């Protein structure tokens, strides 16, 4: 899935994982409800806009190296 999202292990995430909602964040969250990664829960909710019920993120991707933690 990381390859589909344009993530390359060993390279930083876009903006090192930060977004407009969480400017100091340095990680992305992986959501099991859709299997996608987003910088924050607000970004996830904006992207899916009611397509499915949101579940808590269960995994994290490091903003510095794009490795799952």
UniProtKB/TrEMBL annotation:
Domain CHY-type: 12-69
Source taxon at top rank: Eukaryota
A Pfam cross-reference name: zf-CHY
Keyword Zinc-finger among UniProt keywords: yes
PROSITE patterns noted in UniProt: ZF_CHY
GO MF annotation, one: zinc ion binding
Keyword list, A-Z: Metal-binding, Zinc, Zinc-finger
The protein, known as: CHY-type domain-containing protein
């Amino acid at each position: 899935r990381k390859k589909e999202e344009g993530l390359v292990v060993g390279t930083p995430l876009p903006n090192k994982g930060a977004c407009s909602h969480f400017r100091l964040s340095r990680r992305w969250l992986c959501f099991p409800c859709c299997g996608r990664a987003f910088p924050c829960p607000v970004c996830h909710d904006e992207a899916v806009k009611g397509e499915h019920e949101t579940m808590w993120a269960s995994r994290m991707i490091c903003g510095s190296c794009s490795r799952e933690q």
